[in-house]
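For reproducibility, we list the full input for the L-homoserine complex.
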Amino acid sequence: MKVAIFGYGTVGSGVFDVLMENHDIIAKRVGFPVDVKYVLDLREFPGNPVEPYLTHDVNQILDDPEVEIVVEVMGGIHPAYEFTKRALETGRSVCTSNKELVAKHGAEFIALAKEKNINFLFEASVGGGIPVIRQLIRSITADEVMEVCGILNGTTNYMMTEMREKGVTFEEALADAQAKGFAERNPAADIEGHDACRKIAILTSLAYAKQVDYEDIYTEGIVAISDIDVAYATEMKRGIKLLGQSYMKDGKVYAVVAPRMIGEENPLYPVKGVYNAILIRGNMLEDVMCYGRGAGKLPTASAVVSDVIDAAKHRNTNIPILWDAEKLVLGSKEEMETRFFVRVALADAEKARSLFPIEKELKLPEYENAEIAFVTGVMSEKAFEEAQAKVQVLSRIRYEA
Ligand code: HSE
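The corresponding predicted structure, in tokenized form, follows.
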């Protein structure tokens, strides 16, 4: 069976390496050899083992009837959308790590693959090397999903861990994550939460079998988190994690991406560095957690190749995935409830005490002459916004009980 890889970047070169290095073990598992025939990229790679496979012409691949599987790891929507569509229309299964493409066009490509009796698979689009999508759609099939909550971005988790444990600055931590190949081409997608947002949109669409538009998900990144916030969190034996969350409450589905202060009892608390973890709560099963490397060349490539193997084993058989194009209308952000960690200047302390339902005040000797910090009781986002509009808040982070 012949495979074409679209894109020879971090993930594409990893897919090439995994298919080459594990060629024999993959052949054994599939029942026949799975060989790379082409790699599509605009660049030249002189002296690189990929050279004999390289083409700059997508038509050479799509006109070759031998190619049965396309691996799309180019990233971005264009031309990934057009190439994926053509590959599926011409009867090739597509395996992708492209979360933006999956979040936006997943329902359309799943329907097209079903019509053509082939497969559109996207394990690597969420959680890097973690087989979370398989867990959700093929293992947790007896339950109604009540909640999905995860550390879905390796770059930001790596940065928060380095800042806490090594005392490095935000910029140093980001440069290090980029150098290690964890970050997106535009790291704003990581630090502003958009990458995690696309991933929770995909997981929520799969959990509820309808289209969740990522534009509808309230999203905050880690850009406003300071070393002072980290110091308070450490004092409270808490960690700050960028969490993507969706849950069902009173028949409505809510979804949100935001940094949260979580305690040691939370199973996501010990997840450090580039590792991701996703907690899935079923109405019968209760909690299941998947943990592993959420970014990086070979872990992500391993997940892509696991899809290639699935596609090869399911030649001419569509693996059913329930994700309808019908839009899922999410519950509003204003209705969501949580506690908040808040800091205000000392001059605003009395005002803040009258505005917020304060559960406990916190003191750090370095800052007590300049500000107060406190944790509120559970309040709605709307009530918090109303109080916040009346006093200057230095920082606020959602705080899980
Ligand atoms: N930039 C992403 C991350 C890569 O850091 O998690 C994997 O999707």
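Residues 128, 153-155, 182-184, 190, 195, 294-295 surround L-homoserine (CB under 6 Å). The first helix runs from residue 10 to 21. Both points were considered when choosing residues for closer inspection.
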